[in-house]
């Protein structure tokens, strides 16, 4: 299974954006701090997400990013696809040259698994994730830690 940090970070950042959508545009710096993802890496990911219309940028003071559609309309598979991440369980990258340039015995099995995973992720929206109590609990902890960091930084 090849889902790299690019796909994981993109989904994490989009979920963070969805969780904080009611507060207005969300800065990449805030996402970076909460999720411990490099700001420059987020900028690269959000450029791809913007090109795929999954996010919109808001310029000016108080600017940042907002979702490009309702959270219920954005599914996890779209996010992964937008950052050019493939969900591929084959050892050949789906090329069919797994055994001396030919299809191996289990090639079709791993292709079917890849399709099932993509289909599964196509059935999960950001709204579904935002509604989960375990996700909300983690987001609250992250928000509390970020607020504490801001208080400590201003006291110095």
Automatic annotation (TrEMBL):
SUPFAM superfamilies: Winged helix' DNA-binding domain. Pfam families: Rrf2. GO terms for molecular function: DNA-binding transcription factor activity; double-stranded DNA binding. The keyword Transmembrane helix does not apply. PROSITE patterns: HTH_RRF2_2 (PS51197). It comes from the Bacteria. Coiled coil: none annotated. GO terms for cellular component: cytosol. Gene3D superfamilies: Winged helix-like DNA-binding domain superfamily/Winged helix DNA-binding domain (1.10.10.10). Keywords: DNA-binding. InterPro entries: TF_HTH_IscR, Tscrpt_reg_Rrf2, WH-like_DNA-bd_sf, WH_DNA-bd_sf. This is Fe-S cluster assembly transcriptional regulator IscR. The lineage of its organism: Bacteria, Pseudomonadati, Pseudomonadota, Gammaproteobacteria, Cellvibrionales.
